Amino acid sequence: MDNPTEHSGLIQSIQRAATIMRSFTEAEPELSVMELSRRLGLHKSTVSRMLATLQHEGLMDQNPETGKYRLGLGLVPLAGVALGRLNARAAAQPYLDELVAITRETINVTVLDGRDCVCIELANSPQPIRYMGWIGRRTPLYCTASGKVLLAYMHPAERTAVLPTPLPALTPHTITGHTQLEQSLAQVCQDGYAIVHGEFEEGFSSIAAPLHNHQGKVIATLAVSGPTYRLADSVISGFVAPLLATTAKISADLGYLS
Predict the structure, then answer these.
(1) Domains of the chain (ranges plus CATH)?
(2) Average of per-residue pLDDT across 11-19
(3) Is the peptide bond before 227 cis (omega within 30 degrees of 0)?
(4) Rounded CA Rg of the chain
(5) What is the pTM of this model?
(6) Beta carbons within 10 angstroms of residue 151's beta carbon
(7) Of 8-17, 163-172, 223-232, which range is least confident?
């Protein structure tokens, strides 16, 4: 287990709890306090207290017949949230090349991760000058089309929690006022998509729309991105219909009933 002093800001007890939960596998779904104590190099009393706390929170369970511990059913809804991201990626994949063929621009699927949006899938434009994204790329929420879509469908309190104050100006076009940003997000909800010109990277534009899951929640976005000189308003407005048609198909595959 990592030494918590090696990573500033890490909390040792949470690290230990995570290590305990990762000790359970399909091959060994149940472990005793003694087994965990030996494997983790922790005193039995420490392991026992942590298991009792995890059990209280529903993240761990104890087999009444063997006395051994196993992962609790409280992890199931948490896993469902995480898997929702992967499901969005899998659901979107069959449609990406089709949208690239229509727009001839880069298409990416993005999800919320903390205070950023993260690309989890993409299909590149066939054109030599194009938007260069990559899987795993993190971008701000307040100045990207994907980020604005994710912000627009958040609860206001959640939105406040993830937005920096003040909003840094990354280009001359970045919206830095919270009031102006709120107006922009209200427009996103009204339109069902967001368009951004050069707010995050000067010279690049993007249009993004939400992907809904079976509960109606926005779990990801689908975006079309490219150089601004190719994506004038007259051009990017022509992407609205195919983009929304594609997000409707993907959302339907995720179980969303519009």
Answers:
(1) 4-73 (1.10.10.10), 79-253 (3.30.450.40)
(2) 91
(3) no
(4) 22
(5) 0.71
(6) 23
(7) 8-17
